[in-house]
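User: Show me a protein chain along with its predicted structure.
Assistant: Here is one chain, sequence first, then C-alpha cells.
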Amino acid sequence: MKEKVIIVILLLIIIVFSCKNTENQKEVVFFNKSKEVVESKFPFPIGYVNDYEDMFTNDEEQKLEKLIDDYEKESTNVIAVVTISSYKPYDNIEDYSLALANDWGVGRKDKNNGLTIVINKLERQIRISTGLGTEKTLTDEICKKVIDSVIVPEFKNENYYRGIEKGIDSLMKQW
C-alpha cells in the first residue's frame, strides 16, 4: 500500500512539472527560431510589442498585440514595437533600429515584409525601419510623415499608446 502511494505521488509530481501553461505563449513570426545560442546586443523579443520601458499599460499592450496580430494574419506583414532606454552601443536610433530588426528577423524571410518601430522616450526619439519588401510601399518619406503628423503630436501630449495605435493604423492603411 505504501509503495502505491509513493508511486501515485511521484506520478503527480511528474505530471505537474511536465505541464506547461501555454495560455500566454504564442508563436510570433519574427522570433529567431534558430536552436543555436547567439550572442546579441539586443533584448530578447517577447512579442509584437516589446515595451521594455513600461510606456504602455498591460491593457494597452494587449490591444496593440491584437491589432498587430490580426493585421499579420490578414496581410502576412509583421510589425514590431520596441521601447528602449538607450540605443548604445550604436551612435543613433536609426542604426540601432535597423540592426535590431535584422537581428530579430522582423518579417517573413521570403517576403522581407517587416516593419519595426523603435521608441526611445528618454531621448525623445522614434524610428521606423522597414524590410526591403516593405520599403517599396512604405518609403522613408511616408514613415517620416506618419511619425511627424500622427505619432509625435500624440506623444507631445504624453498619449504614447494613442500615438502608436494611430501610427500603426495609418501605416497599415498605406501598406
